[in-house]
Design a protein that fits this description.
The protein is of the alpha+beta class. The protein folds into 2 domains: 3-178, Jelly Rolls, CATH 2.60.120; 183-223, Irregular (DNA Excision Repair, Uvrb, Chain A). 32% of the residues lie in helices and 32% in strands. It has 5 helices and 16 strands. The strands form 3 sheets. Strands 1, 2, 4, 5, 6, 10, 11, 14 and 16 form a 9-stranded antiparallel β-sheet that branches. Helix 1 (11-22) packs antiparallel against helix 2 (51-65) and helix 4 (183-203) packs antiparallel against helix 5 (207-223). The two termini are 21 Å apart. The mean pLDDT is 95.
């Protein structure tokens, strides 16, 4: 499931984050790529242990924790600390698939990557090119979103970033290990949860919405890994 989640960050938050990260020291993005990604990746990133990246990443994580649509879609068990990248001057990231696991600091050193996330920190009119292109069994999908908006999609998908031919494309990116690793099951739970919420808004809490909510949680118990 590929989903656009609007306004994860406010305009004020985007401006503050950009002010902080634009003044930091950027490095070759291939530093965090695997052997396949290194062959097609041409961009710049903030180092993973950069204090600026860590602090601004915490702000993004707080915003994600408060976003009900993100929780409903991702059912996050673990969320990687956000990273930051930028593309300019025809920089690009060719077709690739994200690695299945990421090494993290702490007592649980490995995290499974179920969902890939790109949070846009610039507006579409700020640059040309730079579309995120996701290729799946249903075709090819492109995303160029307003600053503060998030796109999420299965990490199993092939994807690329088109060359940026004018301006700069600046984003944060990260991965989620979901409580439900199977994308089809996550999509089913998301649709059920959204339907329950719409019915509650129209009808209030009824015997039927309560029954549907019970089925939702029973499916989450059946499929979830906590």
């Amino acid at each position: 499931m590929m989903l656009h989640i609007p306004e994860v960050l406010t305009r004020e938050q985007v401006t503050a984050i950009r002010t902080a990260i634009d003044a930091a020291d950027w490095v070759d993005g291939r530093a965090t790529a695997g052997s396949q990604g290194m062959q097609v990746k041409r961009n710049r990133q903030l180092p993973e242990n950069c204090p600026v990246a860590l602090e601004q990443g915490r702000i993004i994580q707080q915003a994600l924790a408060a976003n009900a649509l993100f929780f409903s879609a991702a059912l996050p068990a673990r969320t990687m600390a956000p990273l930051f990248n930028r593309y300019a001057g025809s920089e690009t990231y060719g077709l690739h698939v994200d690695g299945a696991a990421r090494r993290l600091p702490g007592p649980q050193p490995w995290m499974r990557t179920d969902i890939s996330c790109t949070l846009f920190l610039c507006d579409p009119e700020d640059y040309d090119g730079g579309e995120l292109v996701v290729v799946d069994t249903y075709g090819t999908h492109e995303a160029r979103l307003p600053a503060g908006d998030l796109i999420v999609y299965p990490s199993t998908s092939l994807h690329r970033v088109e060359p940026v031919t004018r301006g700069e494309r600046v984003c944060s990116f990260f991965w989620v290990q979901s409580m439900v690793r199977d994308d089809a099951r996550r999509a089913m739970l998301f649709e059920m949860d959204q339907t329950i919420q719409r019915l509650r808004a129209q009808l209030g809490e009824t015997e039927e919405t309560l029954a549907l909510a019970g089925q939702y949680h029973n499916l989450l118990r059946m499929w979830g890994e906590m």
